[in-house]
Structure prediction request, 290 residues.
Amino acid sequence: MKTTSPAERDMQAVKATGRDTRAEILRRSIRANVPVRKTFVQAPRGSACRHGPLSEFVTGRDLRGLKAYLLIVAACSNGTDGWSTRHDSAVWARMMDIDRTATEQAARTGAWRTLRRLQDRNLITCTRTGTQITVTLLREDGSGAPYKRPLGETEEDLYLQIPSTFWTKGYDEQVDLPALALLLVVLREKNGSKFPAEKAPDWYGWSADTHERGLKKLLDLGLVERRPEFKKAPLAPSGFTMAYLYQRAAGMRPRKPRKTAVVRPTGSRGKTDGIDDTKGPAAAAARRGR
Prediction:
């Protein structure tokens, strides 16, 4: 029987996990909330087809690709490196948890293939130099257009926000594909919205059954909440109709930017002022994009 040496045990004890890697990516990108254009989930009103690129992940059963894409947006969308991020293929594999069930070389190959699928969908470009892989964001609508930070000034530029706690608290490890898709749908809309399953094929591009399973999983995980709404219906057998209204649970609401302290000019006795960065043009644009 194979035995593990003390050195190997020590190495395994300190080795970074997938969650450690994802948390470090979020820390480096300085992200409290990750912005994703709403057109990734659903095309604007008046479009010939309302399906967004998200539908391809759902119908293609590509949970790994969807998780990887959202984390890439988190890593790149602060713009510190030209909307790009670069890591060794082993880091990409660990970020996607592929290393947990594959050999090192197979995990590296799996990470590259996942990134190539995202490139085929016109969501990123990726290049490989040795073991290093560089990924650059493209616009979330799948048009292949260059990425620009969304400001929420037009309907095509409105965006949803994913709190970084989705990753740091491990919710990303608990959701299945229907739940993750529906989480993005809920985050896209206002609190208190209805999400009728019978509309899912036309609105989003997946089945009513997938829609219902996704909402149920979100409720089970405590990521969304719902309440019934009753309306008078004189011609209904019961005399009323009922529909559920959904909203984000507290943990999935966008986190407010922290107040930063600045030193007053000379003569202020060294006191500091709390500067509220939730105000101003940039913050106003962000609020319009929610």
